Each structure stands twice: as C-alpha cells, then as structure tokens.
Give the backbone structure.
Amino acid sequence: MRIAVCLKQAPDCSSVYVDPVSGEVDRERFVQTLNAADACALEAALRLKEQRGGSLFALTLGPDESDEVLRVALAMGADTVERLWHPSAVDWGPLTIAAALAARLHADSSSLPDLIFCGEQSSDWASGTVGPALAAYLGLPQITGVIGLEALPDPSGQLLLRVTRRLERGYRERLLTRPPLLLTVHETLNEPRYPSLPAHLAALQATIAVCDPLSLPQFAPDVEAEEATIIEVRIPRPRPHRLAIPDSQLSPFERIGEIVSGGTSRRQTRLLEGPPEELAHELVRFLKERGFV
Amino acid sequence: MHAQQQFDAIVVGAGPAGSSAALVLARAGLRVALIERGEYPGAKNVSGAVFYAPGLLAELLPSFWDEAPFERYITRRVLTFLGKESAFSLDFHTRHFALPPYNGVTVLRPKFDRWLAGKAVEAGALLITSTVVDDLLYEGARVIGVQCRRDNGALYAPVVIAADGANSFLAKKAGLQREFSAEEMSLGVKEVLRLGTRTIEERFHLTGDEGMASEYVGEATGPIKGGAFLYTNRETLSLGIIVQIASLAQQRIRPYELLDRFKQHPAVAPLVRDGLTLEYSAHMIPEGGWQLVPRLARAGLLVAGDAAALVFAAGIFLEGMNFAVASGLAAAETALEAHQKGDFSAATLAGYRKRLEQSFVLQDLQRFRLTPAFVNNERLQNIYPELLCQAAEQVFRSEGRPRKKLGSTILTTLRSKVSLWTLLRDGWQAGRALFF
C-alpha cells in the first residue's frame, strides 16, 4: 500500500502574539513547527503503514525552512520526502497549492497513492481548503474532520477502514470505507510519536529533495482563479453578553433564580424513582428518544 | 555503536555558553553535537537580560555588531534605593558606551540564543533540539558520552561540555557540584512589557538605540532579600525581581506578588504604566558566587556557564551571559587542546580552570567573593535604603524653620535606626566587599 501525507509548517500557536489594537501579528516571535493536525495525519499514516506494510511519502510546499517538517516526518518514519517550492509560491492561495500538490502526486508514477492524509486545517489561516481541493483535483473521494480511524479485518484481504468524523454541534458520523481516498485529520486523532535518537539524528542530516512545481507537466498556476480575496483581517469582537433583567413582579427568591439561570427557560427535569432495573430501562429509553444512543 | 552516534565533542545546552563552545569546536573542524531540551535554542532560557562585554563574541563573529539581534546598547545605568514612598537614585549616563564595542546590550533571549546557536550550526555543529540529556555515560572514571531521553538515546564523544544551566544535573551527577543551599540560589521572576519604541524613548530619555539598565534595592522586594531590575529593549521593557530562595521560603510570600508590588511602587508605576505583558517567566540563578563554583572538570567532562555557577552577582554588578560566553570559549579551547594531544584525562582538562583563572571569569568572582554575603546583609536590604530616603527627605525638606547643617541631619536620621558602631562595621564590610 502506498500512502502520501501532505504537511505544512505553521506557527506554533503559543508563540503567536496579536496586537489587540492594531490586529497585527508580531512575526518576530513566531516559532514555526509542524502543524498540529498534520502531525496527527502523519502519525495516523505511519500506524496504518506499520499495520499493513507499504511505503509512506511525505510532501510539503514551502520555503527552505519547511525542510524542518520533512525532517520530523523522516524521524517519525516516512520513507521518502519531498519539498515543493518556487519563489512565486508565496502568493499562492489554497487552491493553487492543492493544484501543485496534485500535480506532484500525479507525476510520481502511473497510479496515485492508495491513501492520502492531510491535516484538517492549519494553525495560521485555518481555511481547511487544501485537503478537499486536493481530493477534487485528484478525483478522489474524501472524508474530512477525522477523529477516529481503525483498520478492520476484511476477509477479502483489502483494506477496510472505519472512520469517525467530527460534525457540528458535537455530532459524530461513522463511516466504513475503502481506499483509494483522501482523509483530512483533526488534531485530536492521536498523539504523534517521539522519535528515537538515531532516527532523529539521521533525519537532521538527511538531504531533502526539492522540486519546482512549475516544472511539473500537469501544473499551471492560475493565481487569478483563486476564489477568495482577503480584504481585512481582524480579531473577532467578543460576543455581547445578554443580561436577563428579572421580572420585578416575582419574589426575591424567584428573581435570584432567574438571574442565576441567565433568563433562559427553566430546565425541564424529571425525577425517576423505582427499582434499579426499571430506572436503567427508563434511562436507556430516554437516551434513545433524544438520539444519544 | 553506530558511527552516527559518535562525535568529537558533545555540548549539552544551547545557551550562550554552549553555543559559543560549539561554534569554536565546529570551526576547528570537529564533529560537534549541540543538544538542547527546548523546541529551539532560547525557548527555555530566562535572563534579565543585559549582555555585558558583548565584544567577546565580536572577536569570533566579525559581523556581530551588524547582525546580532540585540535590542539597545546600554548608555544609562541607574541604581535606586527604594523606600516605602520614596526613591533615591544614582543615575549615570555616558556617550562613551554608545560606540562599538558596546559596553553592554539588552537582548531578548529567545531571539538571541536562537541566533547564536544558528552561528554554531553554520560553522558545522549539529543542533539536536527537543532532546533532554538524562545522564552521563562512563568508561571507568572517564566520561565518554551522554544518555538522551529518547529511544536508543546514547551519544558518544571523548569530551562532553555540560552547559546545561543553573540547576545542572550533569555537574551534580558527575560529582563535581554539591547540593545547593537555599541561601546560594535566587529566583528571578520576569515580565516583558510592551510599551512601544516612542514611549520608551520618551519615558527613559533615550535616543536612537540607546538603552537603560536600572537596578533597585530596598522596598523593591519588601522584606525579602533581593533586588529588582528594569531594562529597556527596543519596544519592550524587561523587568523583574531577583530574590533569595531561603528568604522567600522563610517569609512565605509568592514571587509574583512581589513582582506586582514592585510594579505598583510609586517610583516604578509611572515607568511601566500602560505596559502590556507579553511574557512571564521565572528561573533559578546561582548567585552564591565564588564558593558555589564547582570543580570544573573531570576526565572527559567540562562544565561551563550557569552550570558552573559562573554568575557575577555582586551588588552593582549583575552579569552572567559574558561569563557564560567566556567560559564556553575556554572550555572549547581546552577540548581542542585535548583533541590535539589525544588525551582527555583530568590532567589535560584541568587546563580549563587555568584559562578561567587567567581571564576575568574566576578573577572577578574571587576578588568580589565577599560581596554576596554583604549584599544579603539584613540592614543593607531592608533598613539602609529607607534610611537613605529619609535622610534625603530631611535634607530637602523646607519648613520655614532654621536648618541644621547637613552632616548632623543625616547622622541623626541614620542613628535613629542603627547604632554608630553597626554603621561603621557595615561601612567597613562594604569597603571590603566592593572597594579595596
């Protein structure tokens, strides 16, 4: 099985300082690291590779300093790594970047990798676009926001994956799927490993292959086509806090109750009484009714 | 053993001492591993930070003055005695410190240490970050490498330079350093406040890249033994307190409360007004002086910088980075000599101490060896600053009454709290510690 992981060097969030008045970011304080979600993507890919055999190719697009993320990939266990870069790429948006990555993956051999992993979003712009766009360019199915991944035993010998997706409002979606496909991984999926010293040393001294994406046959950047133009960046205003004004007709005790509850409608509670078996049944029925189980 | 895990020298800790040592060793063509526990050099390092005598590095790095990320060069030195509601300052300003080689510069350690380690890497050292060194490896009594906290974490080299900072586990494990007493160690708590370039220049009367280093004693740290500092960076202030750990434990006051108290002192509050806290950090400082300096070498091992307690905290002097750099350089030279001889025995490496004895590093520490005890004198810490302020107040007070001559005004104020005999004795001690 061939697996590819797309990585990005991004600022470590704890090192980012944004001036609250001007909204400007202090770039001198940045510490660039491997984007947290990408590290989880890499770890997930490594675990699959170790379970099922195969090879792992790590890819990034970025300037010289981005070599560091590929060194991390090598130390953790990637077989081959490559960095795409052209000076004009500083202006590329997520779609152009995805196109360049797609062109590189196409250029490799006749077939695409069986599985492609990306981080769901990066810590800087967090557009979450590169992964899905890459899937679109490659004509692959995609699963975004992966927070659970398991390889299931399958009698046919093919890889069967059980994937849990994170949806809005705490919902989860569980899917069974087979490669080829692209997964974008959430940064809570796993705990990336801490490489051994020999692997770390070898990675520090490795030479990193660099490829000019403009030289790839299937790639022609069309910067004009970037759909999004950034007009303004600002820090979101904190949401106004709604204050509930208690009804002066009520008794002090009830007014306090209203203030404490924030003026929302009173919580509906039901007290169950009875023997434990019945209570358990009641609970299960309640949870099923509300769609929790 | 992998050939990959064999080096000519291993330097533990990529602070000023470690990076300087690695730079010299790598330039001489040795295979050097520079091991740092932080994500990047400087990530874990805390300092005031004024780097005095930065010219030490300019000799090694000709482009130092143009390239090094220092903030401001120090042309203004202030020493302030704080009373409860008053302050008595000695304020010195000179243009002679405004030309390279500068006498001292302020730096932000995360930037500066990263830059300096980068120079060592350019020279060919291998920088290994995010890696903790747990122990030394021995062959008989000889140190032959280090054990890192990673799988298969052994690295080998005939000489190891331990520059692993204030609480050096390596120096202790090698039996060179004893356990510290709480009187010998201080805790530094520091904030970096953002004020903006213009505000700093106006507030501290600075022009261009000039900077100020200001130190405080007395009420700065309340009843606790210690002092406070305030240094100007380009657009931020570094300020903090340095307090003796024994005294802190005895008085049961939290260090950050002390820092807050210092910031609220009427003489300090207007200087830090509207400052926005960017960083908050704390670190131990080995301020024991001469008597805390450990044995500096054994077969295969040299200790440099804070790890060797090479901190010059002698009242009006608060220096450490220059001592770190100088000791790092001396350690590297000794290691080179050992490589030339092919002999890493304790006898060869003892040359390290001789080098330091010939330089300012051990000479200053020895010459001012009485100062730490003098500075931690109860009266100097808690009584004299207040008395000095009171005396000044008496002198300057105009009440429409006949004045006494100054001598008797001052003496009366001083003798209200301290006997003449104690005063003379403390004066004698001050002389012994600092003057002659």
Q: What stands out?
A: The longest helix of chain B spans residues 321-341. Chain B touches chain A through 21 residues (CB under 8 Å). Residues 373-435 of chain B form one domain. The mean pLDDT of chain B is 91.
